[in-house]
Every structure is written in structure tokens, then in C-alpha cells.
Amino acid sequence: MAQVEASSRRSRSMIHSAPDAAPISSRHLVLAREVAEVRLREGIYLRFVKPACDRFFSAVILVVLSPVLLFTSIALRLTLGKGVLFRQERIGKGGVPFTVLKFRTMKADRRQERVVVESDRRRTHKSTSDPRHTRLGKLLRSTAIDELPQFVNVLRGDMSIIGPRPELPIVVEKYEPWQHLRHDVRPGLTGLWQVSERGKGEAMHERVDVDLSYCDSVGFLTDLRILLATPFALICARGE
After folding, report:
1. What is the rounded distance in angstroms from the CA atom of residue 43 to the CA atom of residue 46?
2. What are the residues whose beta carbons fall under 8 Å from the beta carbon of 221, sequence distance 6 or more?
3. For residues 46 and 57, what is the distance between their CA atoms, to the nearest angstrom?
4. Transmembrane residues, as ranges (predicted)?
5. What is the per-residue pLDDT across 179-207, written as a single tens digit (0 to 9) for each?
6. What is the pTM of this model?
7. Torsion from C-alpha of 48, 50, 53, 54, nearest 10 degrees
8. Distance between CA atoms of residues 189 and 186, nearest Å
9. How far apart are CA 77 and CA 68, in angstroms?
């Protein structure tokens, strides 16, 4: 019996002294368990909670703002003619293209052009100095009303309320491999880039690192902070 106990003690001693088998402390076990719980919560949030909230709130917003949508559609129909919606291909989750919806803000001959004002377009998808914007179009863009049809994209599952803005295929074609990681989540109406100080004064396609920061920290609290900061960011952008 004594020999068995001695052998057992020697075996445990050899295991703990082995260079490739360091003992796992209780602290490490706690940290590993916490990391696993966080990943589980994030997975549940991304797969179930976030999509459900997106669809629910998008439906509510579309109903509540239906008078605004109707009035805008009528005003655009009277000023620009047929086709009140602007459709454009963007890249969504997993690199899958989809058609994003917006209210038209420019004259019909502008819709067929690929690039309008390169100096502005390198900074953002919205060109504020294009002379072909109508007065109504400028108002819609400055108030972000032109983006409201994208709640339909959210209902379809193409987009999320919070997430990286969907990029143009011509921009994504020039991405480095690491930049495609921004497509791990659904694109959004607003995101970290729009409300972050790091994103100010930089081109959207040059601030992929901000989008990747969101992808690494996505969760309920992160989305809530971005959502609460969005109105302030819109007001500040309008005042610039």
C-alpha cells in the first residue's frame, strides 16, 4: 500500500514538474469559464436577440414614421417624377451582395453615374457639394430621412440597425484579406464609425479598423451605446 502511495505521489510530482504540462490554477479556470460564458452570450445575442430586436423595432419605426414616408414619397414624386426610391448594390454579411434602398435625392440623370464628386466620395458615400442635388434632396440627406427605407432592408434581414455601413462592391474589391472580416456581422444603419471620434475626417473604406473594433466587441451594451450616441452624432454632423 505504501509503495502504491509513493508511486502515486511520484507520478503527480512528475506531472506538475513537466515543462509542457503546467498546472492549471483555479484563477485560470475561472477566467476560461468567464470567457466561455461571454462568447456564449455574444453568440446568443448575435444569432437570436439582435435579429429579433432589429425586425421588431424596424416594424415599429416604419409604422410610426409612415406619415413621414408617405409625405416624402409624394414630395419626391411631384419634384422628381417616377421612381422615388434609389436602389444600389452593396456588400452584406459574408460578402453577399444585396440591394440597399434609399429615397432619391438627385435628378434622374444623376442616378446612372458611377461617381459624382470624387473628393467628397473619398470621405463618405454622401456628397454634400454635388450641384445636381435638389433642394428637397439636400434636406432629406441632412436629416437622414433618405435612409429611412433601409428599415425595409432590416426587416428583410439584409441589414441590422447597428453595424458597419454596407460598402460598395467596387470598394470591397480592393480590400486586403483582413478587411473582409468586417463582413462577419450584418451591416447597419448606424455604427461605431459614425459615432466614434476615430472615424471623423477619414474615408469610410479607410476606417475598417473601427468596424473591426465593433466586430470584436459586439454585444447588447455596445449596440446600446452606439444607438444612444447616434442622435448626437447626427446633430453634430449637421452643424458642421
Report:
1. 5
2. none
3. 16
4. 56-80
5. 999 999 999 999 999 898 655 656 665 67
6. 0.75
7. -120
8. 10
9. 14
